[in-house]
Amino acid sequence: MVRGKTQMKRIENATSRQVTFSKRRNGLLKKAFELSVLCDAEVSLIIFSPKGKLYEFASSNMQDTIDRYLRHTKDRVSSKPVSEENMQYLKFEAANMMKKIEQLEASKRKLLGEGIGTCSIEELQQIEQQLEKSVKCIRARKTQVFKEQIEQLKQKEKALAAENGKLSEKWGSHETEVWSNKNQESGRGDEESSPSSEVETQLFIGLPCSSRK
């Protein structure tokens, strides 16, 4: 039975796609191994499955092979001469950049009120419109910043008011406790200053006795 030619496009059926991936992957790894053994070549192969699983083969150390590849490509790029066509393109781009820079510098000077002596009415009107637009943007941003700062100050005021309330409550309870202690101490002092012991007195009726000489 003759096998039909495989069309080079994505296999829509997920099961068939997975089976084909497994077969082709194993065949590719086998070919890489055979190439390294038969031809004494340094071969490294990296494969990621559709689900992100890694499959790799290296006839030597994988990292050493990658470092060797990076050094080779770097040397190849640095040693590649710049063609005349590329040189002309770079010169053209540099000239365009210089022209744009000069235009921007001239526009900047005009916005600052410099070099407007040769400007026409239309150019002056354009500059005026640009300045008015810039002023509007600046004022809008300024208003927004003020609003944000006011909101921050309100939040700080609320926090300080809450903290002040807590401190006042704490100080009020402390002052009440001190006043209560003072009253208790004052009561004990009154009790000590007025003793409850009875004083005996004698009452004499008549003339006092005269002392004998």
From TrEMBL:
Statement: the UniProt record of this protein carries the keyword Transcription regulation: yes
One Pfam family from the record: SRF-TF
Compositional bias annotation for Basic and acidic residues: 165-177
Compartments where found: Nucleus
Keyword Lipoprotein carried by entry: no
Database matches in InterPro entries: MADS-box/MEF2_TF, MEF2-like_N, TF_Kbox, TF_MADSbox, TF_MADSbox_sf
Disordered as annotated region, ranges: 165-213
GO MF assignments: DNA-binding transcription factor activity; protein dimerization activity; RNA polymerase II transcription regulatory region sequence-specific DNA binding
Cellular compartments per GO CC: nucleus
Domain K-box: 87-177
SUPFAM superfamilies the UniProt entry points to: SRF-like
GO BP terms in the entry: flower development; positive regulation of transcription by RNA polymerase II; regulation of developmental process
Keywords: DNA-binding, Flowering, Nucleus, Transcription, Transcription regulation
Domain MADS-box residues, every copy: 1-61
Protein name (Swiss-Prot/TrEMBL): MADS-box protein
Gene source species: Cardamine flexuosa (Wavy bitter-cress)
